[in-house]
Each structure stands twice: as structure tokens, then as C-alpha cells.
Amino acid sequence: MNKSVEQLQTVRETIAAAAAEAKRDEASVTLVAVSKTFEAADIRPVIEAGQRVFGENRVQEAQGKWPALKQEFPDIELHLIGPLQSNKAKEAVALFDCIETVDREKIAAELAKETVKQGKAMRFYVQVNTGAEPQKAGIAPQETVAFVERCRAVHGLAVEGLMCIPPVDENPGPHFALLAKLATEAGLAKLSMGMSGDYALAVAFGATSVRVGSAIFGSR
Ligand SMILES: *Cc1c(COP(=O)(O)O)cnc(C)c1O
What we know:
By secondary structure, this protein is of the alpha/beta class.
């Protein structure tokens, strides 16, 4: 069997076990397979094995491989999980189905404008900088609830959840807990958290989607 397909199976089993442990339905956790840096030829076997939700962190890179794959497999759902420049909002809305990295007013306004213009049913997450790291994207935790409200009320964005990337050198548990608490306060049901090293833990903390790259496709 293809190595990535084998590893996809293992990741699925780990998610199912973590969900069972947390007394959650495994269907309540969506696996976002992060295919950044990998080419269409590497991704195709994973699609053929039934995976349909994928994550990419660069608009330009995604434009090079996904339009053809999406045409061939129209039920693929593509998530943007990397920072977005406002001059790329048009391309991002055209290619992606869900943008997980809304984190400032300007990008919220651009995305809202493009969504209306393109008449597309887009889904959005607000990225939260749970570790308050100066180099990292995301809205500050204490500004999150008000920002989500503005995204909805002022811009009309269909924000469905929150997303975070915990600091690499810290126990992610408290960051997952903080994201879950903020989502409850903001009235949001979806939590995108957990990567290859910590997705089982994220499921225990209530993740509704996990973004797993290297554990499926191998190291980058
Ligand atoms: C690359 C990336 C991932 C996947 O990371 P792995 O450790 O390879 O699973 C998840 N989320 C974001 C935002 C990423 O950029």
C-alpha cells in the first residue's frame, strides 16, 4: 500500500480512539489533511483512498495543484490554513471553500467583499494567537469575542469557528482549552486545533477538526 494511504489509515484510527476515549462521536471530528509542499502526484492516492478535506497554507502554491484536482474530484473541500494578504483575497475566495485564518479587520472586509462578488458560499474561522506570540498571526485572545461579532455584524462573514496554532515549545493543552472557552463565549461550535504532534490531545479538548500534515504525507 502507498505509504501516505497507510499513514492516513493510522491517523483515522487514532482520531477514532481519541474520540471514543473522550466519549465523542468520531464523526464529530473532521480530518483536514495538510498537503503543503507535496505535489498532486503525492496527494492523489490519498484522495483515491477517500480523503476529501485538505489544507494548504499558501494561495499561490495551492493554485498550482488544486484547480485540476478539484475539477476531477468536485466534492473536495479545500481549507486555507496559512496567513492571507488582502491582495490575495480574490484568489483565495475563488479556490478555497473555507478560510481558517481571518485575524484582522482589513482581511475580514476584503473577504466579505469577494464572497459577495463571487456569489460563493464561503466558510470562515477566526485565527487566535493563544500564546500571544509576537511573530505569530492571529487575533489576541482578549479581542476575539468582539472581533468575531464585528466579522458577523459589520462584514456579514459566516464565521463558524476558531483556529489556533499553539507555541511549539509549550504544552498545547491549555491553548486548546483557551480556544474552546473563547468559542463558547463567542457562540461558535467549531474548533480547528491539533496538528501531527498533538491531534489526539486536541480531540480530547473538543477539536471538531484537526489539521494533520507530516503524520500522513511524511516530513517536509
Ligand atoms: C503545516 C501546518 C499544519 C500541519 O502540520 P503537521 O505538523 O505537519 O501536521 C497544521 N496547521 C497549520 C496552520 C500548518 O501550517
